[in-house]
# Entry
Amino acid sequence: MKIVIVGCGRVGSTLARRMAEEGHELSVVDERVASFARLGEDFPGQMVVGSGVDEEVLRRAGIEQAECFASVTNGDNRNIMAAQIAKEVFKVQRVITRIYDPIRAEVYRELGLETICPTTIGAALLEEFFTTGHNAASSGTVLPRALGASG
Amino acid sequence: MASNRPQRPYVLIIGGGKVGYYLAKHLIERGYEVTLCEKDKERAEWISHQLGTVSIMVGDGDEMAFLATTGIERAGVVVAATGDDEDNLVACQLAKRKFGVPRTIARVNNPVNVKVFRTLGIDVPVSATELLMGLIESELGHSELVRGVAVKASGASLVDVALPDMSSLAGKRVSDLQLPDGELVVCIVRGGKPVLPRPDEVVEQGDELIVYSQTLDVERVSEALSR
# Structure
């Protein structure tokens, strides 16, 4: 599967490494060359330096052949715009974006964009720990139950 | 107090940089009701000294809660004029889809994004770079770059197409040009002079056609004529 990830921060690089280990074809886009260090030296995928909200850069990353797309830069609006370009311009099948602001995440979810809001998910996990004493994220992987609790 | 002038729409401008500031200043001078939103407090203070406090609000144009305090629902038009395309896109989308603003105008910094913005529902994406390119090319007398001008807010446009060398249209009469429905040659520019496109006028190499189109899809029109 061909996957394009915009943003090579902690989430982007971790996701890219995991998917590459599974044998998928990865392309990671980031404006800062230094960010690609997070991928490690033997990362088998493509690294593209440039803006994720620039069609030409995305084309260079092979978005036209991509089946999956995620935008996980540290800017909500940048993620929203990149995801919309992937979805509406390049018609990528599976597009998801991370939005920190819960309100904007809700708005764009209503508008048909697949979104993940770590703020709500994080708060829900903490709340669950306070009320039940159970930390659903303690093993390093979040259980579906906790995700469901985030609404 | 009654006024003979029809009431001018309320204009909300997001981003108090140079573009947003001068835009606000001139719209206010022309009698528009304007609110300028600027997220940087110091910058906002400076602007308020120039424009008066009524016209400026401190806040982020992509924060729903802030937008809700600006009277955005009664705005006739929202102009997003920040230096970041993604911020302008989101501000316009929220204005349009969450607050029902009828017209959105966005400053586009990367000219590639003009088309993207249109696809994503922005009514009028404006790229200064693209406009300047068009002007420069026409100053230099060879407009390889196609320019389109929207005709008011009608959804129609005027497209300026310079025929390529060896154009398949050269030698054809205007009446024989196969234009898509809703398109009309309104002027031929030949050697810098306008020529009336009568049906029997023959198109020549090096001509420039000004085409009226009932769409805003400038690129499609130019593509159809550039073969």
Q: What stands out?
A: Residues 1-5 of chain B have pLDDT under 50 and may be disordered.
